[in-house]
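User: Can you help me understand a structure? I only have the sequence.
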Amino acid sequence: MGCAESDQGGQIFAAAFRAELRKFGWIEGRTIVIDTRWASPRDSELRQRLAKELVALQPDLILSHGTPATATLLQQTRTIPIIFVNVADPVGSGFVASFNRPGGNVTGLTNIEPTIASKWLEIMKEIAPRVTRVAILFNPSVAPYAEYYLAPRRP
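Assistant: Let's start by predicting it. Here is the structure, written out as tokens:
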């Protein structure tokens, strides 16, 4: 998980994942083993250690949550299948060759589309029409994908 264990959103995501697995007959401890590791995006040392632990277990599959967690896992293995969720710019990050043909040992889905940034500005302009200048602040060590939103896109 690409968040701390205390993160309420992460807990909700993990519970929903387990609930959906049960709907398909996958019962934790009976038909499936789930080894969960939690690391904040800010704690790269912990992420590295936990990724090594997971890879050492030789699981059939790793589900990765977030861009930093996926990047760390890919540093540890290029053979164990990894499915990512909530990753920004999987192609630009080098996780997959393309959306159509990801290649390698990783695939997944993203709900983040770069053109959404222009929608954010449209909404902001609607809410505060007098705004003429907007600044974007991000920490590249935690959000290396932020420039994904800033690159000009063609429709």
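Now, to help you interpret it: The first helix runs from residue 8 to 23. The two ends are 33 Å apart (CA to CA). Let me know which part you'd like to focus on.
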